[in-house]
């Protein structure tokens, strides 16, 4: 059983959803990112998603796009992100998932990327723009060869065929996008969300985590009632933007995560 799968098993036994916070690596810089990742773990994260900054995102909303630009301007690279994970992985004591686009992986080479990610302590990879039927790229196989989970995406618009393919290709968990559009929506959760998540959980073979537009303890609590995991990203990214390099940012972030993670209990 992978470290990620083990987290979901443990959370299920504890009658709670896994709480999965997201931050963009290198925002405002890589040194600060290390401190912030520790704040996530200390605040109660069960898994941590780390964004690899990319110049041409398609799924990220304004908050995450701005964070990626700040990280790139600070000189953050894929190599830097992998070094960041390697430096802090043992202290974090929770699994780490890289959230990335395919271009940086392709530029490095799929097998080389998988080897370096594994040696850095990464546990899983979510490549948001490589659908499961693009098997010729070989990313899933390269990750599996290194013992890494290949996280897949589903959305409200996913067809039955896409659900079947994603379920067959995914390991670790499936990330279900709660709404169409991009990350960071401040609108209420979609009314059909609970029904859709319950329906999908009967049709997929791995745990289902829900993200996009989840920002408050109340929203975390509502999603945790039906999903195996809850992802909060843009709300935390905005907090980093507001506080910048303020000395109290790690403490403020840890406190916010503690409130959110506590709401993941059922």
Structure overview:
- This protein has 266 residues and is an alpha/beta fold.
- It has one domain: TIM Barrel (Alpha-Beta Barrel).
- The chain is built from 12 helices and 8 strands.
- It has helices at residues 3-13, 30-42, 62-73, 78-92, 102-108, 110-120, 139-145, 160-169, 193-201, 217-224, 234-243, 249-262, and strands spanning 18-24, 48-51, 96-100, 124-127, 149-154, 174-177, 208-211, 229-232.
- Helix 7 (139-145) links the parallel strand 4 and strand 5.
- Helix 2 (30-42) packs parallel to helix 12, helix 4 (78-92) packs parallel to helix 6 and helix 11 (234-243) runs antiparallel to helix 12 (249-262).
- The protein is globular.
- The model has no long low-confidence stretch (mean pLDDT 92).
CATH architecture: Alpha-Beta Barrel
Strand content: 5-15%
The major beta sheet can be summarized as:
8 strands, parallel, barrel
Shape annotation: globular
* Relevant CATH superfamily: Aldolase class I
Mean pLDDT: 92
Which CATH class applies here? Alpha Beta
CATH topology: TIM Barrel
Low-confidence stretches: none
Per DSSP, the total helix count is 12
Over all CA atoms, what is the radius of gyration?
A: 17 Å
Cross-sheet strand order for the largest sheet: 1-2-3-4-5-6-7-8
Helix/sheet category: alpha/beta
Order of helices and strands: HEHEHHEHHEHEHEHEHEHH
Number of domains: 1
State the total count of DSSP E strands: 8
Distance between the termini: 24 Å
Roughly how much helix do the residues carry, as a percent range?
Answer: 40-55%
């Amino acid at each position: 059983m992978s470290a990620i799968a083990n987290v979901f098993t443990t959370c299920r036994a504890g009658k709670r959803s896994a709480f999965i916070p997201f931050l963009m690596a290198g925002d405002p810089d890589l040194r600060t990112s290390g401190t912030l990742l520790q704040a996530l773990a200390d605040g109660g994260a069960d898994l941590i998603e780390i964004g690899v900054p990319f110049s041409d995102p398609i799924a990220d909303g304004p908050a995450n796009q701005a964070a990626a630009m700040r990280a790139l301007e600070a000189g953050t690279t894929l190599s830097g992100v992998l070094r960041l994970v390697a430096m802090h992985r043992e202290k974090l004591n929770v699994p780490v998932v890289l959230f990335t686009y395919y271009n940086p992986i392709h530029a490095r080479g799929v097998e080389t990327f998988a080897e370096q990610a594994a040696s850095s302590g990464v546990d899983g990879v979510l490549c948001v723009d490589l659908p499961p039927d693009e098997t010729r790229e070989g990313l899933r196989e390269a990750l599996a060869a290194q013992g890494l989970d290949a996280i897949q995406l589903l959305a409200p618009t996913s067809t039955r065929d896409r659900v079947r393919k994603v379920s067959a290709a995914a390991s670790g968990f499936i990330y279900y996008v709660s709404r169409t559009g991009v990350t960071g929506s401040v609108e209420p959760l979609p009314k059909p969300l609970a029904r859709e998540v319950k329906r999908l959980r009967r049709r997929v073979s791995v745990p289902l985590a829900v993200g996009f537009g989840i920002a408050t303890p109340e929203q975390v609590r509502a999603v945790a009632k039906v999903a195996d995991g809850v992802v909060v990203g843009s709300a935390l990214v905005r907090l980093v933007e507001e506080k910048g390099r303020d000395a109290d940012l790690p403490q403020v972030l840890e406190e916010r995560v503690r409130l959110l993670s506590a709401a993941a209990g059922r």
